[in-house]
Specification:
Layout lengths: L3 E4 L9 H6 L7 E6 L11 H10 L4 E6 L3 H4 L1 H4 L5 E5 L6 H10 L3 E6 L6 H4 L7 E5 L15 H13 L5 E5 L7 H6 L4 E4 L1 H4 L4 H16 L4
Parallel strand pairs: 1-8, 2-3, 3-4, 4-5, 5-6, 6-7, 7-8
The protein binds D-xylitol-5-phosphate (DX5) and zinc ion.
Length: 223
């Protein structure tokens, strides 16, 4: 699968989303971090704002829910007509049922794991998901450094996906930049969230292209 770059608007200007979206027109999808102030110690925005983003965005939206009670709160996001809804395994009591409901609502279903969470429960029924998100930082804030030990989980997920010949995207989120994306891709990740790396660039679309080119090089060298 070719590498996809999903800029995270956590690093964008929250007062100007429409023009910020326009500045990343080369993105494959736009990564939207929904934080509730409970699951993570940060608060961003909720359903009404994501609904409006969906109306003004010209790219698909990749929703990353960092919220408690995913089983009851996630579905309305899928109903907005977004490309994918990813919830955290730690915030769901019945992740396979939730994934199936997200799919029925017409979105791709993603499941995320924090750096300290094992992938085993997710791997036991990988077919239930369209995307697995291995967090490469503790969720909550942009601009952190990638936690190296999380790359073992990236390799583990990549091996399982390949072994079972599944069409599942393997996403990484947190601390991804020009210095490490090739190496992270060589562990088998194919979908890259990048917040500060993209939004701090003078030419954001050029940064997206550079990240994608390096990621594709890394994917060809899968370890
Ligand atoms: C962190 C968020 C990320 C964040 C990544 O909890 O899930 O999407 O925006 O930002 P960078 O790329 O700056 O680490
Ligand atoms: Zn995110």
């Amino acid at each position: 699968m070719p590498a996809h770059i999903h800029p995270s608007i956590l690093s964008a200007d929250f007062a100007n989303f429409e023009s910020e979206f326009a500045s990343i027109s080369g993105a494959d999808s736009i990564h939207i971090d929904v934080m509730d102030g409970h699951f993570v110690p940060n608060l961003t925005f909720g359903l009404p704002m994501v609904k409006r983003m969906r109306e003004v965005a010209t790219k698909p939206l990749d929703i990353h829910l960092m919220i408690d009670r995913a089983d009851s709160e996630a579905l309305p996001y899928a109903d907005l007509g977004v490309e994918s809804v990813t919830f955290h395994a730690e915030a769901s009591n019945d992740m396979f049922t939730l994934a199936s409901k997200i799919r029925s609502a017409g979105a791709k279903a993603g499941v995320a794991v924090k750096p300290g969470t094992s992938l085993n429960i997710v791997l036991s029924n990988l077919e239930a998901f369209d995307m697995v998100l291995v967090m490469t930082v503790e969720p909550g804030f942009g601009g952190q450094s990638l936690i190296e030990s999380t790359l073992e989980k990236v390799s583990q997920a990549a091996e399982e996906i390949a072994k079972r010949s599944l069409e599942i995207r393997l996403q990484v989120d947190g601390g991804i930049d020009l210095s490490n994306i090739l190496r992270v891709a060589s562990h088998g990740a194919d979908t890259f969230v990048a917040g500060s790396s993209v939004f701090s660039a003078n030419d954001r679309n050029e940064r997206i292209d550079d990240l994608r080119r390096l990621a594709n090089q890394g994917l060809h060298r899968t370890l």
